Amino acid sequence: MWSYIFKRILVAIPTLLIISFMIFSLLYITPGDPVLLMLGSGDTQSVSQEQYDAVRAELGLDKPFFERYMDFITGAVTGDLGTSYITGEDVFDTVMMRMPATLILTVASVLVGLLVAVPLGILAAVKHNSIWDSIATFLATIGVSLPKFWFGLVLIIYLSLRLKIFPSQGIAYIDRDGLGAFLSHLFLPAVSLGLGLAATQTRMIRSSMLEVLNQDYIRFAKSKGFKDKIVIIRHAFKNAMIPVVTVLGSEIGALLGGAVVTETIFSWPGVGRLAMNSIARRDYPMIQGNTLILCAIFLLINLFVDIIYAWLNPRIRLN
Amino acid sequence: MKKRFISVILSAMMIMTACAPKEETTSTVASKQSEKNEDIQATEAAEETSSSTGKTITIGTPYTIDTFLPWDFTSDGDRYVISNVYECLFEYDANTCIPVLAESYTNPDDCTWDVKIRENAYWHTGNKLFGDEKVQIKAEDVKWVMDWTMDPANGSKQQTNLSSVVSSVEVLDDFTLRFTTPEPKALFLFTLSRVMIFPKKAIDEGFDLNAWPVGSGAFKYVSYQTDDQVVLEKNSDYYITPNVDEVIFKIIPDKSVSAIALQNGEIDITAQVLSTDIDAIAAQEDLELVPNTLGWYRYAGFNCKDPLFTDPEIRKALTMAVDLDAAVDAIFKNSAGVKLAVRAYGPIPLELPGADETLWKENAVAYDPEGAKKILESKGWKTGADGIYEKDGKKFSFTIKTPNNDNNRVKLGTIISTQLKQIGIDCVAQPTEWATMLTDIKAGETQMFVMGGGSSLNGMEMLFHTTLSQSNSHRVFYDNPECDALIEKAAVTIDPEERGKVLADASSMIVKDAVHMFGYFEYVQIGMNKKVTDFEKAPTLWYSLCNGYRNVGISE
Amino acid sequence: MKKEIINDDFSMVPAKSYWSDVGRRFLKNRIALLGALILGIIVFMCAAAPLFTQYDPVKDMVLGDMLLPPGTPGHILGTDDYGRDIFSRLLYGGRTSVLTGLSVAIVSAAVGVTLGCISGYFGGIIDNLIMRFTDIMMSFPFLIIAIAIMAALGSSQKNIVIALAIVSWPRFARLTRGQVLSIKTQEYVESANTAGYSDMRIMFNHILPNCMGPIIVQLTLAVGSAILSAASLNFLGLGVDASLPDWGVMLNQGRNYLQTASYLTTIPGIAISLTVLAVNWIGDGLRDAFDPRLRV
Asked: Which positions fall inside the ABC transmembrane type-1 domain (chain A) (predicted)?
């Protein structure tokens, strides 16, 4: 197992190299001029060609593609992802500054999501083709058919504006504002993200449970003694959890990349807003850094997922 | 910043333990609600105790903070904060010049400006740069900033602006400066309103002004929590005592949510109320809407170089086909009857010199779709089998690009395209990502585009001059030497009335040639709690909340 | 000899009769048929839109009639903020939305399932290559992909489908691989192996039918999210024309009217939900039909 983990970490290095090259080339062909955006394109700013060229040279954008890429890679290898065009701050620090907020929101929304999905999914499977099943399907359907901004704004309009139960915006820090404020600021964004997650997971859990309930060995188990029955059912259940874990892994990865819409609506200072902003402004170092960090996160999560596979079904060999 | 980072991590760790009990309570909704109510009461109570020690005004801004560097910012959101911490010599609200660090100016001849600065201006104390030492600002400090800004090596974003109007700066005495301009410059004072004065000491000592801004404004920097809020406190050394003790800028990226936060009393001012939220704010007794002093110009520009649009008659015909009055009404309709925008008949905001609606209307074409068809037909366009005009086998078909970050502009573009479709022109409205849009306009890769801008004293230059325009987001490739000459003349005409006449002439040429489909002047509404005082005197966040002109406060 | 090795009777069923069995089981499933009926009605109404409405969804814009509530005579579902008939926009918009939703789901499932199957079945270096590639695709910024596609290929509905398929297939791949890994360990697959069946036959006849459950769930849900994501791509400039109707675009258009004219979002929202629900029911039916152990 340890050698497996070690091997996977080794594979991460070429993976990150490949993605860095891909993102670098893609940014190269993407329209949009960071210098133009940096210098202010609006009404008040006059920018002479000399000033424009100076900034372009300062950012190294006048260098040929390959040279720029080598500069980036040599920096990245030594742990330096560069500095943001816009703020001049270190890219890694800038992302990490926003990571805690994203982490908090991810954990909270996954909890909300599972809290809804697990009971609902199991209920739908146990009462297969009953009214409960239809209700669960119906709720899950609505969950994926309405956009995230809709959940966010509806929650804010009803629970904050009308009922005044929760604040409409922002994060609260435990040290600055206290635990109560912290939780009440967290609640709405977590619920709005969690419900979307619950929709997919409810369906996944239902389907997996059906699989378990219909396995021949469950029928077989019924003929066995109580102790054997438990063993067999646990085995079947664990095995059926594989797709649930897979999807959950992907969801968590995506959430850690930042939930742009939810962060924007709830004024949540996470990495999603940073990522979107840096794309809108063509802040190349920031976009590259963000992508590399997110890729590392995905590699890690999917490694975990694979390890969990082996735990769920010991016959799956990690190789 | 490091400290904040650590405490955020601590919060993150605490939530891991704190989350479990929170989830358990969801089973009993009632108990949950009362718990939450207590939370809110608790925070309110906490706020009350803090307000007994001081008055806080909380302002919602939709913009992310890019930088605190006084020479480096370009975004409105940065300016909101920076203008409270730093001072410029003059502020310029629409057409009104307000002295800030300057006290007065004289204009002995057209190319000389003597500016006297206040004798009671000091750099902020209580920071690592100046400690508790009260250091006075003198003329030489200001001269240094001007010279520093004009030196291209320093990369100030104001370098081009300032160098184009100032040729040299001299110190006459401790508090008087003499600016010399290469030729008479009508926009001299206006240009100075963009240049913030910052301490030389910071540059000399390598002090990081981005991490801790130190200026001479009415408010001192306290803290910035990433993407969350900026806190400023009052500068008691300022020559006017600010009416608030603390200013908090809350970053709320979604404008609708910001309006809700205002309705909830979470913030006192919101920077911009969307037209769709106007009714809700207007309906609430304790809130009011304050329109921006200046109507921002929004238009649909033709690329005059595009083969379809080289002929002004065609541009006129297309303009005639669109009911712009109805379009503007539809975009800004609200039942509260708030004036959100007025129809534009020319390119200069009505508050600025050069705006002359009567003259424009004389030169403009009116809504007349039948007339439009006649012009098109007289130019050889014929309706094809599919009802679309064609000429020499080519269809009259083009794209109008609209920036996707402003719903009103997308709407204007969509209405224009639909009404053109109605008379048989295949016009596609394409929302376009902002950065792509700018590149396209700069490269001339547009046919028509919806844009906004030029809503300042140098607007005509920005929008239409072939060479002087250093702004890349308005390229219509309108090439008229006569018009250029008038704009150049305006730039060296100091007398405002005279200048206005020249600009009016230039702008009516634009109207006559239908270079733009003139859209509207948008009066952006700032939403405000009625307990905020003195704000509406200069209803903008662009300038300091406390200067010689206004001193924003908050009543209990 | 085979009988001795293969102890699961299903895997012995010859492929042909298994697939016809699937069809028979599906037709016996009432909820699945209801789903198919709903989807059929939706598709028919959208395709034959001019039969049901006399309004043109784009050109019939009467600015004076904007934001009429549902039930207004002449406008059964009201008008939008441009004064266009919502019912007609809903019907015409369904043409693009349903097509986009289904094609994105099917294309990305086809790609993802194939790659996932190969990855899980062969394992080792192939698995590592394919899975690291999915990791890359999952962490790639979607916006950049969309903007680059728009720049390179131009704006069209087809390119929207391409962009969405590029970002959705990795989930199918991971899901399928996970299933294959676990099913691969079952006795009957191992015995099929020893029996000398070809890899293709084992993959498609023995393994794939057993991982259909989660794949179908993912596929049906992908229909909804594709319709929604298509709208955001439209707004980025990947779309053809802002004035063309599209369910996702209609939803976004109503965003600022949630308090004043909530029907602008609820109507397209219901349309999307109904489609996704129908597809889900069909999916459930398929799942049951595919499940060889679930005898109807």
From this structure: 99-305
* Sequence ranges of the domains in chain B: 28-251+525-554, 296-522
CATH topology of domain B28-251+525-554: D-Maltodextrin-Binding Protein; domain 2 (3.40.190)
In this predicted complex, what is the ipTM? 0.90
Nearest CB among B7, B43, B74 relative to A173 is that of: B7
Contacts of C136 in chain A (CB under 8 A): 15, 18-19, 22, 295
Confidence of residue C20 (pLDDT cuts 50, 70, 90): confident
Beta strands in B318-457 (DSSP E): 341-343, 382-383, 389-391, 394-395, 397-403, 426-432, 448-452
10-residue averages of pLDDT along chain A (319 residues): 87 93 92 86 67 88 91 89 91 94 96 94 86 87 88 93 92 88 94 92 89 68 68 77 92 92 94 93 94 94 93 81
Domains and CATH numbers, chain A: 91-312 (1.10.3720.10)
Q: What is the CATH number of domain B296-522?
A: 3.10.105.10
Q: Is the pLDDT of residue B389 over 60?
A: yes
Residues B115 and B138: beta-carbon distance below 8 Å: no
Q: Model's pTM, two decimal places?
A: 0.88
Copy the structure tokens of residue B417: 């395209």
**Cβ–Cβ below 8 Å for B257 and A44:** no
B472 touches chain A (CB under 8 A): yes
